[in-house]
């Protein structure tokens, strides 16, 4: 985990870089798919949902909240990813929904940089890394 500062532009740049986005999402998907069947089950997806810390803020839920309430939030997020409602998330669904969520996140952030605690292998962390590499280059 590390604390990073990011703003809407960081995310938008990342989404515009299709190659970087596709490979990060693909890697993340492969990591989450622990039984390697090419699909994410609810259990496999939980790790990702937990790393989407922005939703804790978004739903007004903090880490100490009622586990039942959190489970309901995670379930509704899972359904949001599962576009064809077959109970699993494939790579296309994962890609599409991740992109949408990141766009919504970028919109919400605007140009005010915010601090976020990010997991090392999260997609947002990748976005920050790619952005700072560009600035350095
Ligand atoms: Ca799986
Ligand atoms: Ca599905």
TrEMBL record:
Annotated Pfam families: EF-hand_7 (PF13499)
Domain EF-hand positions: 20-55, 69-104
Keyword Phosphoprotein: no
SUPFAM superfamilies the record matches: EF-hand
Domain of life: Eukaryota
Keywords, in A-Z order: Calcium
InterPro entries with a match to the protein in the record: EF-hand-dom_pair (IPR011992), EF_Hand_1_Ca_BS (IPR018247), EF_hand_dom (IPR002048)
Calcium recorded as keyword: yes
GO molecular function: calcium ion binding
PANTHER family: CALCIUM-BINDING EF-HAND FAMILY PROTEIN-RELATED, OS09G0482800 PROTEIN
Name recorded for this polypeptide: Calcium-binding EF-hand protein
Name of the gene this protein is made from: 11442929
């Amino acid at each position: 985990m590390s604390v990073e500062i990011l703003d809407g532009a960081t995310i938008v740049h990342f989404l515009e870089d299709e190659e970087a986005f596709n490979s990060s999402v693909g890697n993340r998907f492969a990591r989450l798919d622990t039984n390697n069947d090419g699909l994410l089950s609810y259990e496999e997806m939980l790790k990702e949902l937990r790393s989407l810390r922005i939703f804790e803020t978004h739903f007004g839920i903090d880490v100490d909240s009622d586990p039942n309430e959190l489970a309901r939030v995670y379930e509704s997020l899972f359904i949001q990813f599962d576009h064809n409602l077959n109970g699993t998330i494939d790579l296309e669904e994962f890609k599409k929904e991740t992109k949408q969520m990141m766009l919504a996140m970028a919109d919400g952030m605007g140009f005010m940089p915010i601090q976020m605690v990010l997991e090392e292998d999260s997609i947002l962390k990748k976005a920050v890394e790619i952005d700072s590499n560009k600035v350095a280059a």
